[in-house]
Known about the structure:
It is a single chain. By secondary structure, the protein is mainly α. It is 39% helix and 7% strand. The chain has 7 helices and 5 strands; from the N terminus they run H-E-H-E-H-H-E-H-E-E-H-H. It has helices at 7-17, 60-73, 95-101, 107-124, 136-140, 164-176, 184-190, and strands at 25-27, 79-82, 132-134, 149-150, 153-154. Strand 1, helix 2 (60-73) and strand 2 form a beta-alpha-beta unit.
Amino acid sequence: ANLPNCHYDAFASFARERVQDIAQVLYSQAGFYLLKDTDGGNGSRKMFQRASIERHPIDEDHVRKTIEYLDKISQSVQVTWLGPYLEPHFSRRSLFELLQAGYHIDPNLADNYERLDKELAGRLETGEYRLRYRSLLDAIRFGERINLVEGNCLVFRDGDHLSACGELLVGAIIKESALLARDARQNESSGR
């Protein structure tokens, strides 16, 4: 259950009350929050800032609660969950070392995000939910389609947040990939 006075509860009410003013809700969340640490605790940035990155289990309870919340909102308005993208999880201190040495994604980091993306997509593509899932991991392909530095742009301002120019680059990728295309069936059924 959400904490008392949770802003997410307020948004669900807002979406129901203002459905005529909302064309679509886009949801995105850092992937590490949907994983557990190796001791079974809540996922955190620290899991990926170690010298050796481990395989982390998916936080089934957090995933279930997130799906239930978003599906509740999707009863009123179309909701698209833009899945977690691969975050480099470098520390600010190591940024300059990474730029000099060249950044390579740790295969275990990529594995954690790929497993999470497949799990979320699998759960939400069953037809059981009105909620749509779109893989940012597939669209962005960090390390292939976009790198830590693109031209004069340092894409991430820290280990898991895009810089202003990074937001523009990733936004353009999302736009061209048609991840935000509206679902005609849902629009017809809701009268929008």
